[in-house]
Amino acid sequence: MLKHLRSIICVSLAACALLCGCGKSGESQPETTAETVAQTTAAATAVTTKPATVDTPANVKRYDFLSIKQKTDEINETFNKYISERRFKGVVYMKLGNDFEYLSATGSSDSNNHKNNSINTRFYIGSLTEQFTAAAVLSLVDSGKLSLDDTIDEFFPDYEYGDSITVENLLNMTSGIPNYVVRSDISDMAADLHIAITDSVKDDNSFEENKEIILDWILSQELRFEPSTSFESSDSNYYLLGEIIASASGKSYEEYIKSEIFKPLAMNATSCGSDEKLALPYDGREEGEKLCYSGVGYSACGIISNISDLLKWTDGIFYDKILSDESINIMRTATEDGYSCGMYVSGDRLTASGRCGAYSSMLSYTTDKSEIFVSLSNYNYSDPSHLRGLFRKYLSKYSAK
Question: For 84-110, what is the mean pLDDT?
């Protein structure tokens, strides 16, 4: 989908020779004009998009797309200014309608080797992982290998509460299971392992050793509330779903999600393992970095991806028939708490954000793709939620009358 976009961005990145501060907190330098690469690519690229629907839900913002197209340069300059002033470092993409696209790549992916963040740079995506895990669960439901009504004692026979918690409870965060990840506030700007396990999880442990530590802790905790009576976001739900996917499919979690989700959508840069294209973390905190250790993020926050692949996801999840219509409807329909399958749903808009050590992420899009915002960063102090808020506030001047 982004073949032409990649070519333009690679050329632009090379020409601009991005310069970026890095290292310890407080050492980063102010952004310069050369550090920001922003392209409006609608006229120059052949990105395949489906037209925006006419009957947009009332709570989805309507824009005067013609005015936005006419003010492309002004909008680009304003967005560049926001990124520079907030010293955001990473990759940001925004699309409005079929005529406006914005892309910015700033900061280093590996300062020691003079590598800069680009559209192909891979990042930990944190809790964005959960929507992919949810899709894998629904894929197994579609194939008859799993039911949302299954109680989880089938997969965790020694778990005290297994006969009262269903797969659906895990999927919709209504199980009452405590979170093995602790976040400072709802903005998700800091995330650490629970204090009870932080000393046991180690960088030199194997994948299975760290996973066993986390599973043992999750399955030994008392519930915070009776299943199905309340909602509380807890990564532990999706950690357990990874094991359920493996058990029901007969494959490892990574093998199954790769073959049934990533491969059909041509998400070739998305996986649970790192490579040379993974951006190094900067300004990270020691405890938060443990979330990136092998086996720790797993099916809750362990996936690594890039901007290109996340756009393939928004382009294909509801249109490429990797799931049944019933499963697609489940993903798109919010519970009374506004949550569904790893995303928060508001009308036609789905939004999720993530934090994993120094890495932060955000994905927000309408299902007709008339508006898409994607952000990935490897700098601890980047705040994608705030940046998106600034973008949308500025764009409100172009709201349709």
Answer: 94
Do 316 and 322 meet the contact criterion of CB atoms below 8 Å apart? yes
- For residue 401, the model assigns a pLDDT of 67
Q: What is the mean pLDDT of residues 306-331?
A: 95
Percent of the chain with pLDDT over 70: 83
The CA-based angle 67-70-72, given to 5 degrees, is 105
- Give pLDDT, residue 185: 58
How many Å is the Cα radius of gyration of the chain?
Answer: 21
Reply yes or no on whether the pLDDT at 374 is more than 90: yes
144-152: long-range contacts at Cβ-Cβ below 8 A with a sequence spacing of 24 or more? 145/248, 145/249, 146/244, 146/248, 152/240, 152/244
- Token reading at 325: 């219509």
Report which of residues 34 and 168 the model is more confident about. 168
Q: Which two tokens stand for residue 97?
A: 């309608």
Q: Cα–Cα distances in Å, from 285 out to 23, 294, 379, 386?
A: 12, 17, 11, 21
Both tokens of 256, joined, read 């199954």
Q: Residue 227: what pLDDT? A: 98
pTM: 0.84
- Residue 119's nearest CA partner among 23, 20, 37, 19 is 37
Domain covering 124-370 assigned CATH 2.40.400.10 in the classification: no
Query: What residue segments make up the domains of the chain, in order of their start?
Result: 3-121+389-398, 124-370
Task: Tell me the three state secondary structure of residue 54.
Answer: coil
Alpha carbon of 81 to those of 9, 178, 386: distances in Å?
A: 19, 41, 14
SS3 245: helix
**pLDDT tops 80 at residue 392:** yes
Average pLDDT of the residues of the chain? 85
C-alpha span between 344 and 104 (Å, rounded): 25
- Rounded CA separation 230/225 (Å): 7
Enclosing H/E stretch for 106:
strand 100-106
d(CA 134, CA 175): 15
pLDDT of residue 55: 35
Closest CA to 5 of 120, 99, 109: 120
